[in-house]
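fwd from M.: "can u put these together and see what the complex looks like"

so here's what she sent:
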Amino acid sequence: MSAPRTADLGFARLDLDREARTGTPEVIFAAGKTADQTVACLAALLEGSPTPFAWASRVDGATAAAIRERWPDAVVDEEAGCAFVGAVPDPVGEVLVLTAGTSDGPVAAEVAATLRACGVGCRRVDDVGVAGIHRVLAVAPDLGAADAVVVVAGMDGALPSVVAGLTDRLVVAVPTSVGYGAAFEGLAALLTMLTACAPGVLVVNIDNGFGAGVAAARIARSAQR
Amino acid sequence: MSAPRTADLGFARLDLDREARTGTPEVIFAAGKTADQTVACLAALLEGSPTPFAWASRVDGATAAAIRERWPDAVVDEEAGCAFVGAVPDPVGEVLVLTAGTSDGPVAAEVAATLRACGVGCRRVDDVGVAGIHRVLAVAPDLGAADAVVVVAGMDGALPSVVAGLTDRLVVAVPTSVGYGAAFEGLAALLTMLTACAPGVLVVNIDNGFGAGVAAARIARSAQR
Amino acid sequence: MSAPRTADLGFARLDLDREARTGTPEVIFAAGKTADQTVACLAALLEGSPTPFAWASRVDGATAAAIRERWPDAVVDEEAGCAFVGAVPDPVGEVLVLTAGTSDGPVAAEVAATLRACGVGCRRVDDVGVAGIHRVLAVAPDLGAADAVVVVAGMDGALPSVVAGLTDRLVVAVPTSVGYGAAFEGLAALLTMLTACAPGVLVVNIDNGFGAGVAAARIARSAQR
Amino acid sequence: MSAPRTADLGFARLDLDREARTGTPEVIFAAGKTADQTVACLAALLEGSPTPFAWASRVDGATAAAIRERWPDAVVDEEAGCAFVGAVPDPVGEVLVLTAGTSDGPVAAEVAATLRACGVGCRRVDDVGVAGIHRVLAVAPDLGAADAVVVVAGMDGALPSVVAGLTDRLVVAVPTSVGYGAAFEGLAALLTMLTACAPGVLVVNIDNGFGAGVAAARIARSAQR
Amino acid sequence: MSAPRTADLGFARLDLDREARTGTPEVIFAAGKTADQTVACLAALLEGSPTPFAWASRVDGATAAAIRERWPDAVVDEEAGCAFVGAVPDPVGEVLVLTAGTSDGPVAAEVAATLRACGVGCRRVDDVGVAGIHRVLAVAPDLGAADAVVVVAGMDGALPSVVAGLTDRLVVAVPTSVGYGAAFEGLAALLTMLTACAPGVLVVNIDNGFGAGVAAARIARSAQR
Amino acid sequence: MSAPRTADLGFARLDLDREARTGTPEVIFAAGKTADQTVACLAALLEGSPTPFAWASRVDGATAAAIRERWPDAVVDEEAGCAFVGAVPDPVGEVLVLTAGTSDGPVAAEVAATLRACGVGCRRVDDVGVAGIHRVLAVAPDLGAADAVVVVAGMDGALPSVVAGLTDRLVVAVPTSVGYGAAFEGLAALLTMLTACAPGVLVVNIDNGFGAGVAAARIARSAQR
Amino acid sequence: MSAPRTADLGFARLDLDREARTGTPEVIFAAGKTADQTVACLAALLEGSPTPFAWASRVDGATAAAIRERWPDAVVDEEAGCAFVGAVPDPVGEVLVLTAGTSDGPVAAEVAATLRACGVGCRRVDDVGVAGIHRVLAVAPDLGAADAVVVVAGMDGALPSVVAGLTDRLVVAVPTSVGYGAAFEGLAALLTMLTACAPGVLVVNIDNGFGAGVAAARIARSAQR
Amino acid sequence: MSAPRTADLGFARLDLDREARTGTPEVIFAAGKTADQTVACLAALLEGSPTPFAWASRVDGATAAAIRERWPDAVVDEEAGCAFVGAVPDPVGEVLVLTAGTSDGPVAAEVAATLRACGVGCRRVDDVGVAGIHRVLAVAPDLGAADAVVVVAGMDGALPSVVAGLTDRLVVAVPTSVGYGAAFEGLAALLTMLTACAPGVLVVNIDNGFGAGVAAARIARSAQR
């Protein structure tokens, strides 16, 4: 393995060849960084990457402002907490993103933003939880048209079990921290999804829209090859 | 409150007026008792109760044999691990008992045995988990005919959420210890049911078919009054 | 199953036939929604539902203000965090709501508000925890007059075990997050209630006054049929 | 502090002055030891202690046989799993030991055996759980006659909360591993007791009859001084 | 049992005979109450109790101010978060209160305030954790002069194990939420104390200085009888 | 949705159209069934399915013997605990299965058996854990040749994080219950994989080789379309 | 053991001979103390210690200001939250400190500050997590030059397993609370490190840079003796 | 990094250069392997390693017999569950191994066996738990003579906190699964050790005598260089 190129900023060591190696562009996870650190990382990526594009997730208001100040034409997706700098890639394929309830929206938005950054198309249908099973059945005909299905659900996290029984597509399940009490910040939904009685369900961390998006993008790109 | 009559066996203090007070006959929970203790408790109940009937749950083979030796016409339900001595009450009303999978059978059997002991009718439909949602939809038309619905499910425990969205009957949810790994001996199903996205779901302890049966019997008797 | 009518607001998919199907009017859970979203949902429900009534739970100050601005004669129950728009249904039957301590009040208020929205009567007695068992015994004579009993308790959560041994009514137990340390945000009370030594206890999620109210309403309606 | 005398057996370092220092005779906890090790420890204690008495807890059948072989007049309490060698001290004072259910018996027996070894009197009343609250009220008049009250309970562990509200005596609460599912091997009862809504409740480890007995003995001896 | 007298404030049901029955004056736990509710409770207790004294714990700044406004000569212990109204009882006996570290101070202060309200004397020695074992040994000679010892410790919670091996007095162990990471808000200290290798240790809830104080007061009063 | 065909055996309700609907043949999960029940299910599947093939997982010795008695040419994979009856489908594509240690072998075998039943090719490389990172680097060149990579690991579960950083293929991570102490029956590995610092990792339940196999098969089939 | 000298401030009991006894200077843990208490402790240490140096950890802005006001030439390390008063000891030896990601920086800074206070040299390399394994391999040649290696990692905590397989130096692993969801405030990383598949890894509490620094300093001093 | 030499047995991939790279000889962890697999691994190590020595841990009776059959002069340490084949290295330096109680013996034996395999001297003192603190003080003078101290303790796990306050040597703490109830299979001791109030304590997995031995050996070798 020849060593990948790295941009060493002292506090961070950016992986300039990640996209070449893993098919997914490096992302700047802004949650543990100052606004200045995030801007510096984006700048280094833009300069060093083979593609004129960089992006950051978990961006708060202050960081979004700093990004816009540096790159006035940056695009900030406020629901998703993501910022895009440079040329967003053209989308190929399509991933279907479902949410169980309205409160799961921000996580679904992060999935969608990640797909966008990875150059994969996305269709989103919200609030189709199993308490009104007819809402799930209504989307059943669309499942087969997608390259993969991402299901975002908090509380009981039951939606992926139902969806996976209706399709031959891979279901990427994202538990969310929506709920209270015995939802235990998403633990209930996480355990539900891990023990889903239907096979074909794969799980990411609680609220991890980014991880689900990257995974779905890999599947979609693989199917489009 | 005048003090209820009690049969004091030293190691146990039997509540002879429980049925009069709570509508449910006292049960002998055999799991923590020797075969001799269980037999002695049943004998004391038969002698002291106003009705010529007594029963025990969580009965193993040795205890079942001891009961049969003492009362040759005792009825032992082996799937449920329950034994009935004396005249089983005639059933009124009907409770619908659903299981998500075949392995949930023994717990559903305990629900059914408890309903029998409480004098309430029972209809049972097995293996209608949400991975094949058409199986759930197939029982939907029957929900309204029941006084209450008991749903028994392990693994992801998702079935009660779906059922409760299809009916105006109360759903008594029983998580089971069926599953492995992140099912954590029924914890996953328990949390799922407690956080069910559909209202109208009430939950009992893991594998507690007895508790679900008593509760459903109370609802059925209330509806039949 | 003919597909229920749905009001699709994009971010939400409202179930206009929920009351017809489940006997309980759809509620807007405001906790994960903006004030505007909650108002839009209430408006859509009012317009699309067969009954001229809609309500929301987990309403904070800002959302309550927005509701009042849109519907000046809306009724806001501040202790419960609930808002009612339109004609509250007339109550039938009666549910007895008990709290173990003063701090359990807001959850009991949510139970009462839910019963109100469901058109069921409610009587509430506060601060009858088991540390002063005479307080529990004092309400014992009233238990038989109720269609169901809801018991709200935090800390040790011991009250439902005692109450269920005194009555033939179903006891709906609501653990609350009242307490500190080993109360673990309501987990201690939840486990106590799930393992109650008296049968006839059914449990809902921590602080879930709404769920307890819906369940008690179903029982009361069933008993009144 | 002058160093206490120690009997060094290599695998164990026995504290010969423990009784002088702490008022409680050293016990041999047999659970992690071979039968030979337990016998050797008892012999060393008998030889080195100021009093002609030694005892062991958590004794299984093989170890009990080995003890009886070495000391034919040893007393073995099989329910408690304890063995006494030499002159059991005369009892002073009285501790009241209550159990919630029949299955809690072995732990209560360990409490009683420990009190016996510590030279404190014991009265035991079994199966007075809160599901039949009249059974608790029946023992209320006896509480004031005891130097301390030990309450042994599994499942919901609710009994100490009720007892402590009825007396000015200290209540030593012992959670047991009796129960299943959400009882989590005694965790539910432990949390209940730690969060008891009545003050005056102190808690020991799950199934720790020995610890409860030593504590109650200290209180009784203190009250008798 | 003749029913104890109760002051019914609607939101609270005060136990006016608690001191007569349990030897400990009723306390107003202010944490879940408004300042007005706490003042109303104190007033009702003062009026209805046989002794001219009332007190409240977990009092914040606003509530303390409200108490002082109503009773200008009320005494507020700010470290403990407790307020005393009326005549504090004269102390009898003495309880020794030890802390492992400086940060455990507020919990120890609540122990001391409770002892004061219960009319029991208190001596407090701070910061004697086991990391400097000589500090523990330095207090060893004082242990025998106390009626009981309360040990307050966070982090590893190891101090009670050492103290209980040095004395024949009962050790009341109070785990605190001091620490971070794997201290898990006091859980580590709680488990340590429950599994203490020395007998004679009894445990209360995390940060429960009140419960430890009441228990120690009962022991001291018992020893002074 | 036209209702799928079902074989109703009373204790089980087999989904005869699962393969048509989800691309994966129905499996008989033998763990909760008797040998007779498993055989009956396999027979019903063989009779009712469009393809002359059926299989079962979690098969123990007794069940394997019963299968062989009924179908003498059945193939039993003992390491995997799986049995195949009828014509195993021809494999397309290839999934690479890696294990971290020798003890992870049986779970990897279940992955391989599932791929076989789904008609997908499999290459397996064992014992390439990160403690000898050169072993991981040695397989790096092979990653790109696979349609998907399944990584099976217990203990620290660190292997998927490293592998996902080396490839653009999706990594399906299977935590195993290998390990002791703080491995907590696979919980440590599960959490590690859910929080993997490299994206592109999707997780199944602990020891769920079946689920990983089905998911990998869906990806491989999608890539081969 | 002659009793160590102690500075008794009432709220604290400072160990003036700790450095002589344990080789590590006493530290003032400021998190549970007021600014005044921290300053008083530092002053007492400076006065009573054999060396003209004192320091505090977990210092917030207010406490840092109070320290600077009292000792204008105090050095405050803001990233680490540490303050040094007096003459920092000259460093001997060298410890290599690695972080998995940028967000782990503050904990690594606490390690470095502790090493500084203990008089041990430190080299720090940031952001070498296993998702880009080439970054780990790049530091491999430097491992043998260090007296010990401290590895600071949140999320999956996988870095120590890889590093320990590359060196014969002891690896001190520090889990951090970096991450979300199933990272459970550092629990995931903690379990990963405890179950590391490579031996030679020792673990400290979550975010405990101080403890890791002291341990590494002891190893370095031992190696330099 | 030139790739280390590997012995590929199919089911295992042995690291022949581990000792050269990490200073510790490769061990065969027998717990997850058949007797034949363990023997084959030992044979391959003996053949491929630069030193004529190999060993295995977690060896049960059957595996020990198989080893003895192949290598009649193999040494089996039954208390430790370890087997040594070939020339055990001569010991350098000395590690002091302490146990809190007799039941911790087997884990201490694994520590000692690992030190032996690593060529480091060992002195072991058993049963010096903190309940008799004089036993700890009695070993205090020996601490300074050791290169490192390993402390093995179950139940409350308090011993390392005390020992680390008495010495400048590194303390390697090994929690054991000794205890019951709230000891939670070693979790209580693990948390105690992680939150030890004295610095200089590093922790390994529950019952991981092997890991503690390797770490202590690294420290001892480093100190002896």
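replying to her w this: Chain B has a mean pLDDT of 93.
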